[in-house]
Amino acid sequence: MPRRPPPSRRRAPRQERAQATCDAILTATARVLLKDGYEAASTNRIAQEAGVSVGSLYQYFPSKEGLVTALMERHRARGLADFEAGLVPLASQPLPVAMRALIRQVISVKREDPKLHQVLHELIPRMRQWGLSDVYSQRLFRLVRAFLAPRFEELRPQNLDMAVFVLVTSVEALCHTAVTDRPDYLEDESFVEEVAALALGYLRPEAVTATSAPPRRVARERVTRM
User: Fold this and answer.
1) In Å, how far from its chain's centre is CA 11?
2) 9 vs 169: CA distance, rounded Å
3) What's the rounded Cα separation, in Å, for the pair 45 and 82?
């Protein structure tokens, strides 16, 4: 049986000063995880890094697991809020235009703090062991589904839920791997084009053919000249 999920907080901060203390503790948690890794991190080490007593830390966070959970919640909530805000002006845009903009938004979120993103991503399996559900991934699926639903008649896949799963999982995996293995791709607009071509090829193959033809002709001309 999975372990009982650890609460992320003992109590919520009610005053500005208390909120500032919580923020400092979570920021220190991120620094310690980046420096020492999860196994070597401890509440004593995190309290020292934050400049607070261990007793103050335990007022708000019950354990190291609770700290990591709260840090994950803060990190992913910010990224999801940015992504959701970016969806609003794209509702009326053509799918190829909107898809490129969404991929840029995903990359922007991951590029903001790539090392922390990597550390937290590696800790997701531990969260599952603790019995925690990934509410932010669930929310992301719902947002993308709501975005695609009005366009469903123009999409190739017949199962919208499956299409959202395939699309989100593929784009997330590509962007995450770029963060870890090819960070230079995150600064390259052609990476956006390649991921968009993959996504559009799955959703609407004819959209890729229409938008990709000019670049391919240019590429062939260059080969001929060589």
Assistant:
1) 27
2) 30
3) 32
> Which helix H or strand E contains 164, and what residues bound it?
helix 160-181
pTM over 0.85: no
d(CA 50, CA 61): 13
Q: Is 1.10.357.10 the CATH number for 74-225?
A: yes
For the stretch 131-140, pLDDT in tens is 665 678 888 8
| Contact yes or no for 34/119 (Cβ under 8 A) | yes
Alpha helices in 12-159 (DSSP H): 16-40, 43-50, 54-60, 64-87, 95-112, 114-129, 135-148
| Boundaries of every domain in the chain | 74-225
Distance CA 95, CA 151 (A): 8
How do residues 37-93 score in pLDDT, each as one tens digit?
999 999 999 999 999 999 999 999 988 888 998 898 888 888 888 888 888 888 889
pLDDT at 108: 85
